[in-house]
């Protein structure tokens, strides 16, 4: 009989780190607002894109500890994606807001319906090129959590 994990580790969430654009337009502001909302909803943790640009050790540690890297860019210029690439990071999910049908305009107003569109796109994995990575930790429990069935 195969080992059956008796722990509650199925509740373990994927650790995501989110880098967002903060450009001076509605889609830049929307990108940042979406990263904040996703963090508040428990999707992942927003990290500083400027720190990524200068490759600070603390941000690189967060990247190394993450199961999934999410980049949210406002427009086709893809500044945040390019910053990630310069830092040697290929995102697991890369959302470009204008690709979601949201038009880039000159003001910096965040439309709540547009915010919901971006947040939903992240949750749905619309920016993924491949299926979501599974969180795997070494351990002795049948589920791979490391608890040995004792949590």
Explain the layout of strands and helices.
Layout: E1 16-20, H1 26-40, E2 45-47, H2 49-53, H3 57-65, E3 68-73, H4 79-86, E4 93-96, H5 112-124
Parallel strand pairs: 1-2, 1-3, 3-4
Protein name: Zinc-binding protein
Organism: Methanofollis fontis
Pfam families: DGC (PF08859)
Concise summary:
InterPro entries: DGC (IPR014958). The chain is an alpha/beta fold. It is built from 5 helices and 4 strands, in the order βαβααβαβα.
Molecular structure report:
With 151 residues, the protein is α/β, with parallel strands linked by helices. It has one domain. It is built from 5 helices and 4 strands. It has helices at 26-40, 49-53, 57-65, 79-86, 112-124; strands at residues 16-20, 45-47, 68-73, 93-96. A 4-stranded parallel beta sheet has the order 2-1-3-4, with helices on both faces. The longest helix has 15 residues, at 26-40.
């Amino acid at each position: 009989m195969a080992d059956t994990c008796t722990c509650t580790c199925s509740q373990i969430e994927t650790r995501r780190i989110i880098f967002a654009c903060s450009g001076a337009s509605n889609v830049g502001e929307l990108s940042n607002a979406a990263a904040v909302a996703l963090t508040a909803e428990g999707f992942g943790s927003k990290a500083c894109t400027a720190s990524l640009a200068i490759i600070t050790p603390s941000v690189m540690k967060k990247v190394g500890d993450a199961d999934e890297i999410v980049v949210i860019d406002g427009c086709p210029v893809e500044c945040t994606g390019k910053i990630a690439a310069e830092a040697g990071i290929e995102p697991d999910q890369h959302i470009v807001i204008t690709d979601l049908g949201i038009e880039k305009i000159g003001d910096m107003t965040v439309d709540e319906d547009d915010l919901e569109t971006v947040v939903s796109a992240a949750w749905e994995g619309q920016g993924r090129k491949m299926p979501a990575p599974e969180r795997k930790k070494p351990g002795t429990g049948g589920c791979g959590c490391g608890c040995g069935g004792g949590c």
